[in-house]
From TrEMBL:
One record GO biological process: protein secretion by the type II secretion system
Every General secretion pathway GspH domain range: 47-137
GO cellular component terms, semicolon-separated: plasma membrane; type II protein secretion system complex
UniProtKB keywords: Cell inner membrane, Cell membrane, Membrane, Methylation, Transmembrane, Transmembrane helix
Ranges in a coiled coil: none
Major subcellular site: membrane
SUPFAM superfamilies recorded: Pili subunits
Compartment(s) of residence: Cell inner membrane
Gene3D superfamilies: minor pseudopilin epsh domain
Protein name stated in the entry: Type II secretion system protein H
Amino acid sequence: MRVSVRNGFSLIELMIVLAILSVLLLVAVPNFGDFVADSRVGSVKSKLISSISLARSEAIKRGSSVAVCRTSSGTSCDADGTDWSTGWLVYDVSTNDIIRVQMDIEDASSIVYSRSAKVIYDSQGMLVAAANGDSVFIIGDSSSDTEEDGLLVRSTGRVRSCEDWDAGAHVCNDS
């Protein structure tokens, strides 16, 4: 008597595995898109916090005003405007020495500043034109309507991330 040994899978077993994988992918793929958008927003926010913090510390260290402005060329500031999505640079106002250029911004990222001017720190690390109050950077991702975060620049010059950001109203609800 011969015993037959089967190697491999039957067609029904393969179809069941494919059905289970399809269901898992249907659940995972939409969430993965949000994950990527959230990652992009977080990356841009970190770069902006780093540059603004550098401007403040350099202003104190150099004893002169240091500014952060939007740029599309990487060599000079663009005219005043609210869209910072092409990049920004940090420079010493008195000598025009460029300290840092940040232009490797994701194409899907959007950065909007609540003012149409530069962020300028004086030699004490205080924000110039602070009498106008706090300002906000709104950082978003064009691939997601819900992925948006805020970066608050206090009138004292301190920059911080908004923990309780209201994306609909573009308002930082932190106290």
